[in-house]
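We now fix the convention by which a protein and its fold are recorded. Think of the row as the fold of the chain written in a discrete alphabet. Here is one such record, which you should read through line by line.
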Amino acid sequence: MKSKLSIAIKIFIFLFIALLIAVGVLVYQVKKELPNSEVIENYQPISPTVIYDINGNQLDIITLENRAPVHISEVPMDVQNAFLAIEDRKFRTHHGFDFMRLGKAVLSNVTGSAKEGGSSITQQLAKNAFLSPERSFDRKLKEALLAIEIERRYTKDEILENYLNTIYFGNGSYGIKNAARKYFDKEPKDLTIAEAAILASIPKSPTKYSPTKNMKNAIERQQVVLAQMYKYKFITEAQYEEALNQKIVLSKNSDLNADLNEDEQISVSNNAPEFTSIAISEAKRILKINESDQKALFDGYKIYTTVDLDMQRAAYKAFHNNYNLKRREKLNGALISMDPNTGFVKAMVGGKNYRKGDFNRAISSTRQPGSSYKPFIYLAAIQQNIPMNTVIEDSPFTTPGWSPNNYDRKFRGGMSLLKAIEISNNVVPVKLLQQIGIDKVEKIWRDAGIEGGDFPRDLTLALGSITTNPLNMAKAYSAIANGGYRVKPIFIYKIENKYGEVIYDAKKEQEKVKIYEPEDVALITFMLESAVKYGTGQSAKVFKNGQLIPEAGKTGTTSDYGSAWFTGYTPTLVTIVYVGNDDNKSMGGGMTGGAAAAPIWKNYMQTVVNLEGFEVGNFAFIDDYIKSKDLSMRDIDLKTGLLDTDNMDKRTALFKVGTEPVELQNKYRMGLEGFF
């Protein structure tokens, strides 16, 4: 028996020692990752975050212009104790963290009961000052070790002062002084116990417990704070009863800006407000910061966005100078410009009067794209080896409950697919969709990484009856422009912390996945080049050094002129423009994609192609396949699709080798001579 007991003791001792060694190793590894003593000594409560464009130009500074720090001596003990009672009642006696509270928190989280934070005020300060916001055992250990170091270097009053000056109280208010002024129009020294308990309630959830947004929740949380203050003898019973019965009267200015997007309250510049807003949102996602937590951004980050400030200015100018947008107050629109090879978003206009916090139409406006969706119908046909010289009859056609018509309500008889896309014919793509099937078109759309949206299961799809947004159109067109690869839009390409360390690199997020065959996108690109050269997209022609640049694109106009689009691309840039009223009401006759959207696209791109360092490039996937003889060119007659012989309705077309026409246009007119 003694022998067994002895063995058990030895095993226990061995395991205990092993555990100590493991913990020691872990602590050693974690300590190496902690800020050094100099960093801790020179800690500043709030550090601005700077946002840059892709060329290193400063876009914005994220900071607090109304910072109002207060010395701990100006904060009455009752106010201090309100925070201690709810956040860390043993603050004055522990050495960094409360073992009992931390143990209870761990147990409740393990068992799945009501979650407790377990973090002392010193730990919260350590996390806010030096650590990332993710929840992990590793971070909690760092937090505990830093708390001990902070307690060693600073007095309790200094720690509490830093804490009270940096915590977030909602409505753009950071620090106890700003909060007291915001909600009660008082200095901290003039706060009552009841008011102090209200303020102590807010940091747990600034949105949920904000008295300006939900007084009921705020009072319920205040009562918990007061009960804790009484329980732990921070206040007497008489003070407790008096505070419970005090009516909370907010300052008349307390609800100012309460409903504004808080991105607006912390931005210094208006260089590119769309990018400031999205950079803040994306940074929170990347850094795993709670969406409502603004204070975590004040940590000296350097956020490098993908926007090119010169291109952004060109986009603003194109909108500002547009005749239709200037003369029609309610008319609005959006632009998004993206590198199809990297996914880097280079420019974005959320609306003609966009400001931070406003509705960003480039990423959030859902519209029907109209004819700018037709290229995906033709791409599906190409995938089925239906060449661009295929002739379909442009004639009256009825499907259950619907008879498609052309823009000018005329029918032109037989025409090739190339001719149909050039003039944006409606009947031909509807008949083509009926032939190839809706499933194949939807696969093209979804393969580009587009989720959700209203996707009709009928032939109106051929005329763009889906609902989508400019960002999705940019994704879909990018997969064509880059030779057939799915691309993920990227707004931030790098983030550095305040120590200059790269903590995020976008290269790790982008994966190259082929979704379309390069030969197929070469063919649809060739067709869309023709639409710009000869068809409805002619008003989008862009020149450099007197030469038409390689560009492809498609106009789009919805029924009753609800939206007008131009969706176009060069080898290095996809740009989507839409124009429309926000209520989706008709813009009036003549407001087509070619008349309303294409001029904005042209003016923007004309500036961009002349920017120093901008490379227009070539559609290499077309040239390469022609050189390799996988694709070949033929001159065809646009009406018959046969080889041209009379130079009338002549157009150069591109074919997969083996699908080229071999018959002459005049075959039937010349009898047997046409064969020779």
Notes: The first helix runs from residue 2 to 32. The chain is about 40% helix and 15% strand. The domain at 370-467 is CATH 3.40.710.10 (Beta-lactamase).
